[in-house]
Structures are given as C-alpha cells and as structure tokens.
C-alpha cells in the first residue's frame, strides 16, 4: 500500500506540468471564446434586452462582442437581476426577469408577425467577409452579407441565441 501511494506521488509530480498546461489552455480558451470584434470599432449605440432568469444572452453578448461588465444589479424585490456591459461607447444591458415571457410562450405565430423590434443595426469599421468567417468558426449564427446600393452600406446578418437579428453594418467605400 505504501508503494502504491509512493508511486502515485511520483506519477502525480510527473504529470503535474501537463495537467497545469491543459488547465491553462482550457481557461484561456474559455476566456477567449470569441475575439472576432477585438479590432472592430463599433460606433456609439445602446441595446437593452429583457430575458428569462435562466437566459445566457448576456454571456453571449459579452463573449461575442468582447464586452466588459460594468455592473451587475438586482431590483430591491429580487424579481429582476441584470448586467450592464460595454466596449467603448457600445453598451448592452440585459434584464433577467422572474416573469419574462418569450413571444413563443404567448402565441404560436411566425416571429415576424409579433410587433416590436425586428432587428437592429450596429455601424462598424469591420471587414464583413472576415468577420463573418470568424463568427461562423466561433459558432455564431452569421448568415448573409447584403450589399445595399440604395443606402451605400454592406450588412452582415447575425442572430443571437434568443432570435434577435443584428445587422453589422459597414459603409461602402
């Protein structure tokens, strides 16, 4: 039995550098799940969402856009928690409500039939084909690039996990 403990001690010491390296790589990957927007300038804008308590939408925006958490908050009665994040003057706020309902919980219709915001746009200096490739590799639903000749902009359509559509917009040069 002592020999077994002694061998495990040496085996553990021999494997420690590999275990530490794997842990560091894993932590690095988790912390850097998506840096596609790292060098992209997003013009000043604000987006606010209401979500259910178990939603991970705030985490998705934080990871996808490289946002920094400015504050987390809870309403005095505890019914709402939230997070406020930013990257420069691009600000995202997510409210997690006990009583939040998804549109699909209320009616079973085509999501385009429900009134309210259908999509929103963010003006950037992004190279949209490169951004689309990076986002797609990261598992983000980035679908098409539309070249709008009337508005003189290119738009990359991205859909978040809650079904909100984001048009990442770049002015045509």
What is the fold's blueprint, element by element?
Layout: H1 2-31, E1 45-52, H2 57-65, E2 68-74, E3 80-87, E4 90-97, H3 103-106, E5 119-124, H4 128-137, E6 141-148, E7 153-159, E8 165-171
Parallel strand pairs: 1-4, 5-8
Antiparallel strand pairs: 2-3, 3-4, 6-7, 7-8
Question: Can you describe what's shown?
Answer:
With 173 residues, the chain is an alpha/beta fold. It has a single domain (45-171), classed as 2,3-Dihydroxybiphenyl 1,2-Dioxygenase, domain 1 (Roll). The chain has helices at residues 2-31, 57-65, 103-106, 128-137, and strands at residues 45-52, 68-74, 80-87, 90-97, 119-124, 141-148, 153-159, 165-171. A four-stranded mixed β-sheet has the order 1-4-3-2, with helices on one face. Strands 5-8-7-6 form a four-stranded mixed β-sheet, with helices on one face. The radius of gyration is 22 Å and the shape is globular. Residues 1-33 have low confidence and may be disordered.
Short descriptors:
173 residues; alpha/beta; 2,3-Dihydroxybiphenyl 1,2-Dioxygenase, domain 1; four-stranded mixed sheet
Outline:
The protein is 31% helix and 34% strand. The chain is α/β, with parallel strands linked by helices and 173 residues long.
Rg, rounded, reads 22 Å
Order of helices and strands: HEHEEEHEHEEE
Give the mean pLDDT. Answer: 80
Shape: globular
């Amino acid at each position: 039995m002592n020999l077994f403990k002694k061998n495990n001690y040496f085996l553990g010491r021999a494997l420690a550098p590999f275990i530490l390296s794997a842990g560091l790589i894993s932590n690095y990957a988790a912390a850097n799940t998506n840096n596609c927007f790292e060098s992209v300038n997003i013009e000043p804008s604000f987006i606010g969402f209401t979500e259910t308590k178990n939603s991970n939408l705030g985490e998705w925006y934080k990871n996808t856009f490289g946002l920094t958490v400015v504050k987390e908050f809870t309403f005095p009665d505890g019914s709402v928690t939230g997070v406020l994040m930013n990257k420069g003057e691009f600000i995202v706020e997510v409210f997690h409500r006990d009583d939040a309902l998804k549109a699909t919980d209320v009616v079973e219709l085509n999501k385009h039939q429900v009134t309210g915001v259908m999509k929103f746009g963010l003006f950037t200096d992004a190279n949209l084909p490169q951004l689309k490739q990076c986002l797609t590799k990261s598992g983000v639903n980035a679908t098409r690039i539309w070249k709008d000749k009337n508005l003189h902009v290119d738009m990359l359509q991205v859909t978040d996990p809650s079904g909100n559509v984001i048009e990442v917009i770049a002015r045509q040069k």
